[in-house]
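Worked problem 6 (solution included).
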Amino acid sequence: MNNLLAALIFFTRLPFWRIKTVPSECFRHVVSYWSLAGWLTGGAMALVFFLAAWVFPLEAAVILALASRLLVTGALHEDGLADFFDGFGGGRDRESILRIMKDSHIGSYGVLGLIVYYLMAYTLLTSLPPEHIPFVLLCGDAFSKCVGSFVIKLLPYARKEKDSKAKVIYTPMTVGECVASILGGAIPLVFLPSFYGWALLCPVVCFFLLVSLFKYRLGGYTGDCCGALFLLCELGFWAGAVMVSRHLPFVMHLL
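Solution. The predicted structure is:
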């Protein structure tokens, strides 16, 4: 329970810290509960979209849903994505990439990357059938966080602990923690129409491509890499969902 509470404290700005004081060691194990935290952040987006769609156009409801997660998380993942774009876009070698990503200032690659990311997110989500969007938001968040959590099983941390922004290095997941992560990502899928199952391949492909990039350029991962990994895997899921919905007759034939 302490590890889950630590994950909610770490990944959201909601006052879970008022419930109890969590031992600092628990924050080394939060990644395995990343997908469970996705129930909250993805659920918030789904709920906001559902309510907003009653009174606003589809496009406005999608924007409000995306904005709701920014408020819940304090743009934690987006900060990592911007640093990822800045570091990998402007860095020429491992040391320069790590130095740029640690800089709190955002550069041109980060700004442009976030603009392109949200243009893609908006376009993809508004292309889906409105009645499916809440389920895609919930399941995409939790499943992509589940997929992303396995980066700490495949790669070492790229910095020393004292150089970490959060001053914490995640501990590799145990078998039980792997199971918790998988369940957190899989359980919400029961709400997703079955034909969207094909879309689950896209975040997995994104994950392995990004992990290969991290390994090649950094020899490991950072916290910023984790944030970028989740958001880009989620974007991959949304892209997969759109491809499935646009070619539904063919997909149903396969099923």
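Discussion: The CA atoms of residues 91 and 97 lie 4 Å apart.
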